[in-house]
Amino acid sequence: MIEKKVVVLNRAGLHTRPAASIVKLASKFKSEIYLVRDKFSINGKSIIGVMTLAAEQGSEILVRASGSDENEAIEEIVKLFEAGFGEL
Amino acid sequence: MDFSQLEIMSHKSILVETLINSPAKLIPLTGNLGMSNSITNKNLHRPQLALAGFVELFNHNQVQIIGNTEYSYLKSLSKQQRIRSTSNLAKFDVPCVIITNNNPIFPEFIEVAEEHNIPVFTTHYDTTKAFYLLSEFLDDQFSSHVVIHGSFVDVYGVGMLFVGRSGIGKSEISLDLIERGHRLVADDVVMFTKKRETVLMGTGTSLAQHFMEVRGLGIIDIRQMFGIRAIRFQKRLEVIVELEDWQQNEEYTRTGLDETFADLMGVEISSIKLPIFPGKNITVIAEVIAINYLLRTYGYNAAKVFSGKLQDAIKNRTAGPQVNYQDRRLISYFQGDNE
User: Fold this and answer.
1) Where in B118-265 does DSSP place strands (E)?
2) Which residues fall within 8 angstroms of residue B34, CB to CB, at 6 or more apart?
3) Which of A65, A88, B186, B210 is the right S-S partner for B190, CB 3.0 to 4.6 Å?
């Protein structure tokens, strides 16, 4: 299991479209992917889950992956966060 | 299913002002004073001996309840003695004091409390009821919570949680159950709260409510689609159904004689591992699991009954080959095609 901290960079926060892009990306991997905010941990492959985080700009999220492709999964998801979901 | 890795959320302390929301109907006698004091202990304390001056082992960090005993004691004292007695209590770091029975508390008591930044509340409930109401409330405030990725449905009154890998069809099973008249508690994000150490209560989040994602369809709102009878806000967790892809070499329960349990925050919950393959009607099986759980709760265990009948049959079988096949039928003599 590996985990990495990311920050929501785009101004609108983790609204529906970014949430959908995270879920789409996460679903490509075999690994289990969890996003954790203040101990509130949700499945990264569930759109309802990711939306429930209600993460605003600046909020810190821990991305956690475990499985055969955990390294690639973390890398790509972190990249998506760092790019501000293409909204920067 | 292993739930030991889940993040457990709980409050280490709460603010005194939170108590205003408790069902004990507290009215503050000291205005906004000390509302931001923190309560770090969920237990309540009656400061009888502390008022009398014996303060060893005094649980000062708990909410202090002034019941009839304490009130009568204070009443029996002179004003000077009352101030000293109240100070015995107030010199400690007490989060707040609650007067029960709406007893008319003495002005000097309030003064001493105010000096030490201790808020005083009053309630019209008697001590026993106030204790009960506040304990329940504080137990909930300090309770542990976990968030589980699954689908939680009330099936014939049995709180049933479906877990399993993403995309295995948890939401679809729930949808099917709702269609058959069962009630959704939450889908995808279910929060469980430990109550009184033995019970887990599940609910959705205030944001997601009864929204659900169906693959290929998107987000739907169960409450709008199926109405109020298709949902509920909370339910006790009773059975966990773990869905998994059928594997040739995995062993699945065949008799049901031994009940298996999963440990969730230290509470044992009946758990069933259910293999999935095309053509299998999981919804019907889920209903049967619920009914079977109810039967067991009410004292009937089909696996045990069948097993008992088998043992009797083996015991009563006389030695040697049995040739009268007619005796093995449920009906010993066919009279015709009648009942």
Assistant:
1) 120-122, 145-148, 151-155, 158-163, 183-187, 190-195, 199-203, 211-214, 218-221, 234-236, 239-245, 261-264
2) B16, B95, B96, B117, B118, B119
3) B186
Q: Which residues of B does the annotation mark as catalytic?
A: 149, 170, 188, 254
CATH number at residue B69: 3.40.1390.20
B147:A40 CB<8 A: yes
Residue A15 has what DSSP assignment? Answer: -
ipTM given for this complex: 0.90
| Helix ranges restricted to H, B142-204 | 170-179
Q: Which long-range contacts link B12-20 to residues 24+ away (Cβ below 8 Å)? A: B12/B40, B13/B38, B13/B39, B13/B40, B14/B38, B14/B39, B14/B138, B14/B141, B14/B142, B15/B39, B16/B95, B16/B96, B16/B119, B18/B141, B19/B63, B19/B96, B19/B121, B19/B134, B19/B137
Q: Any idea what the CATH number is for the domain that residue B223 is in?
A: 3.40.50.300
Locate the chain A residue with the closest alpha carbon to B192.
Answer: A40
Structure tokens at B294: 């109810």
The sign of the dihedral angle between the CA atoms of B17, B22, B25, B26 is negative
A10 touches chain B (CB under 8 A): no
Instruction: Determine the pLDDT at residue B197.
Output: 86
pTM of the model: 0.85
Tens of pLDDT along A4-47?
A: 999 999 999 999 999 999 999 999 999 999 999 988 999 999 99
C-beta of residue B126 within 8 angstroms of C-beta of residue B94: no
- Domain around B198: 145-297
Catalytic residue ranges of A: 15
**8 Å CB contact between B261 and B130:** no
**Which residue, among B205, B212, B215, B244, would best test binding to A if mutated, counting the most A CBs under 10 Å from its CB?**
B205
Domains of chain A: 2-86 (3.30.1340.10)
**pLDDT, average across residues A44-59:** 94
Q: Residues B244, B210: one domain?
A: yes
Q: Are residues B151 and B105 in the same domain?
A: no
Amino acid at B86: T
CA atoms within 13 A on the CB side of B14: 22
B198 and B267 Cβ atoms separated by less than 8 Å: yes
Q: Dump the DSSP string for B197-210.
A: TTEEEEE--TTTTT
**Count: domains in chain B:** 2
